[in-house]
């Protein structure tokens, strides 16, 4: 079966155009609704958190959906590994919209999957324990998370899904790993692709700069403020040195924050720190990694997304592993459809979960034909060193479990959701 035939036969939701809610007709209002609407009562997902200490002293938080008796007995039940957006986490509505159905039993229309959300350093209540944040380009933290998850579920196929910034990280990871990817398949939604082009669109247009860029910049500053007590103890670090400059900015744009924060502390050295935000953007773009992808890979973008400037049609068309889908409408992580309100007064549901779940269901039917092995049998070899499980010859990839099983609590930062 050709890849195209596989997609057409297993993803019926793509056979007709996506139609947005009549009252959310444009990308701007779809994106605004993601931020302003109350999604607390829909797609409830309960998590248990595991904190991993990384070799450089940093910490990431893995939020697992609780096991059910059926899944607990099935060692081969798939695991969906999630990467969230710019300053989000496991409680984001766009994350829960996918997982609430994916983790439901097959008898209820779900995939019967487990799921784990990888919360980036400092996000969603994860403590900041080293002078390194996260970024759109740094991939060693997802490598560390997958090293742990693949050992925890050695017989389960791992599937990745990324949103916005997390989609960029996920694309870079699978493109860099190629046949060594610990993921059997992946889906990325609203991937920003070319960060340089995005920055031009966000900073070069007055409306985009004043609305989207400053909203995202404000989120990062709020996140930074929530970790000030920890940062104050990081003597000699570039992060502590640049923090006062970042906090002195008034209603900063995303690029202004990136100049003082992300380009300095967004990953390990090398390549960080970068001389400028533009240099960091040029390095971080995931469109450069598309040729290296060698697993089934679904990418969905909306053409009216006000945050994503360019979509790499040519690069995707030249890689036989990649299925690129674009919709005329949907905004940034929106894709709302249906009536004004849903059942019992809830917001309308997201169309996007249909193609994503169809994609994963189709891939799982052919998972034995995709690559070789699973769990600890795939990826780069590992060893135990100084109390950490690490990838051999990868000094920043590894983990040590420092806490496990606690219910998560929301972060203290006041952040806009949905971005």
TrEMBL record:
InterPro entries: AB_hydrolase_1, AB_hydrolase_4_sf, AB_hydrolase_fold, ABHD4. The active site is at 164 (charge relay system), 305 (charge relay system), 332 (charge relay system). Residues 80-336 form the AB hydrolase-1 domain. SUPFAM superfamilies: alpha/beta-Hydrolases. Transmembrane segments: none annotated. Belongs to the AB hydrolase superfamily. AB hydrolase 4 family. This is AB hydrolase-1 domain-containing protein. It comes from Tulasnella calospora MUT 4182. The lineage of its organism: Eukaryota, Fungi, Dikarya, Basidiomycota, Agaricomycotina.
